[in-house]
Amino acid sequence: MDILEMYGLPSITQLQKNTPKKEHWKNTIKIKVDKFWNEKTLADVENKSSLTFLNTSNLEPNKPHHVWNVKQLQRFELRKAIIKARVMTGTYILQADKYKFAHYNVEATCQLCCSGNEDVIHFLTTCPILSTTREKYFSEIREIITYEITAEKWNNVF
Ligand SMILES: [Zn+2]
Questions:
Q1: Most buried residue, 7, 23, 46, 47, by CB count within 10 Å?
Q2: Its domain of life (predicted)?
Q3: Per-residue pLDDT at 68
Q4: Which long-range contacts (C-beta less than 8 Å, at least 24 apart) are formed by 95-99?
């Protein structure tokens, strides 16, 4: 009864009196559950600081994030998607994270370039070894941002 009420579905007595057809009931449940979780997520974005940067414009129930749009589930593409998802959610463990938990056994230094602590900023923006990978996307991102904020502001901010 609580679940029916939570999703705005008819009460158990209403369902006993007027039992819907299976397909109609499954469709109603899907619509109501999707609506509930979409509204709850949007409300949480407003109230929770951890969701500040969640892009709600692409938020659609039952539609996976575009990072999971792997055309064929080739092992390499899947592994890349898993790493991207972990970086986006802050669950990808970098050297700086390992160092926080095991000071004596692990160095925070990036093992690719050995020139700085491997934190998210280093990994995504400054590691020289990863620069060729980054540059593929950098010019496109710069073009989009400068279109919005002008090239002068780009130079001041970035
Ligand atoms: Zn590095």
A1: 7
A2: Eukaryota
A3: 84
A4: 96/122
Rounded to the nearest whole angstrom, what is the distance from the C-alpha of residue 85 to the centroid of ligand 1?
20
- Ligand 1 centroid – CA 95 distance (Å): 10
Q: Above 80 in pLDDT, residue 11?
A: yes
129 Cα: distance to centroid of ligand 1 (angstroms): 6
> Based on the domain organization, do 26 and 95 belong to the same domain?
no
The single residue listed with the structure tokens 């010019």 is: 139
Query: From ligand 1's centre to the CA of 44, what distance in Å?
Result: 35
Pair (78, 53) in one structural domain = no
pLDDT in tens, 37-94: 989 988 888 888 877 777 787 777 778 888 888 777 688 888 988 998 898 888 888 9
Query: Which domain range does residue 37 map to?
Result: 2-58
| pLDDT 10s digits, 97-127 | 888 888 778 888 999 999 989 998 999 889 9
- 103 alpha carbon – ligand 1 mean position (Å): 19
Distance 124 CA to ligand 1 centre (A): 9
String of DSSP letters for 90-113 = T-S--HHHHHHH-TTT---B-TTT
DSSP state of 125: I
**d(CA 91, ligand 1 centre) in Å:** 19
Same domain, 70 and 52: no
